[in-house]
Amino acid sequence: MRQQTTKRNWAAGGIALVLAGAVPVAAGAATITVDASASGAYNAAGARVSTTQNFLTGQFDRVERRSFFAFDLSGIAGTVTAAKLRLHNPELSAFIRGYVSPDANEALAFWDVATLAASLLDGSAGVSGYADLGGGTLFGTRSVSAADNGTVIEIDLNAAALAALNAAAGGDFLIGGALTSLSGNADQYVFGFTMADFVPDHTRQLVLEVAPAVVVPAPSSLLLAGSGLVLLGLARRARRRESVS
User: Fold this and answer.
1) Contact at 8 Å (CB) between 119 and 40?
2) Under DSSP, is residue 107 helix (H, G, I), strand (E, B) or coil?
3) Is residue 103 part of a domain?
4) Please, is 66 exposed, middle or buried when counting C-beta atoms within 10 Å of its C-beta (0-12, 13-18, 19+)?
5) 3-state DSSP assignment of residue 182
6) Sign of the CA dihedral running 197, 53, 97, 186
7) CA–CA distance, 13 with 164 (Å, rounded to integer)
8) At what angle do helices 2-20 and 219-244 cross, to 10 degrees?
9) Given CB 3.0 to 4.6 Å as the disulfide criterion, which of 91, 214, 235, 239 pairs with 27?
10) pLDDT at 110 exceeding the cut of 80
């Protein structure tokens, strides 16, 4: 009888070890929208343009501006498998519109940001912060035009951005924007008038596809489970023999 009990205990122990040796793997993805916690722009002189969080990107009054966005990812758990940036580009009249340029199209690009979030937000990032917002690792590009006025512009983020998003899980994610096709002295910008009180839409979002973690047995744990089930079968067989005799 003691031998049967021992075999059953070994079997139960093997199954328990499966759960102890489980590992997380990706399951079905969920769509999560994260609103920006902050935004803004720096000009070529290294000054933060305003404290209104306006993110005009491009050249205005012969001075280039580059934008930045901060997102708090502390509520994200799992692996980001796809991402897009969504930014409203206003149009309220012929004089209040987000896209202005003598050119039919401009090239909009987004990059990683190495500058500390605190420096960007308090206006102390300077010329180096301005340079950082328009260079480094490219996260995504899009052609913009007057057709984008009055719409939410969406930019699909690339694999480098996904890696950065996953590395930033639980913390802040920063992204910088610039127009890379500027030429001449005319005004050439996108996202004009953003965050103004008279503009009804202040969309600044990351839309993430996130695969949550689920627990499944590791291969070594499956081997232990198999051993436990074999022992359990032997114990049952021995019990049947005893009852017959």
Assistant:
1) no
2) strand
3) yes
4) buried
5) coil
6) positive
7) 41
8) 160
9) 214
10) yes
% of the chain exceeding 70 in pLDDT: 75
CB 90 within 8 A of CB 97: yes
Q: What is the DSSP letter of 105?
A: E
Domain presence at residue 121: yes
pLDDT in tens, 71-107: 999 989 999 999 999 999 999 999 999 999 999 999 9
Paired strand residues for 22: 217
The CATH number given to whatever domain includes residue 156 is 2.60.120.230
CA distance 86 to 206: 6
Query: Would you state the pLDDT for residue 96?
Result: 96
In terms of DSSP H, where are the helices of the chain? Answer: 2-20, 117-122, 126-132, 159-167, 219-244
Bigger pLDDT: 155 vs 241: 155
**What is the extent of the structural domain holding 109?**
28-214
CA angle 75, 81, 87 (to 5 degrees): 70
Is residue 54 one of the residues assigned to a domain?
A: yes
- 87: closest CA among 58, 65, 67? 67
- Cα dihedral 171→207→188→108 (10° resolution): 90
Q: How long is the chain?
A: 245
Nearest alpha-carbon partner for 206 in 135, 160, 152, 125: 152
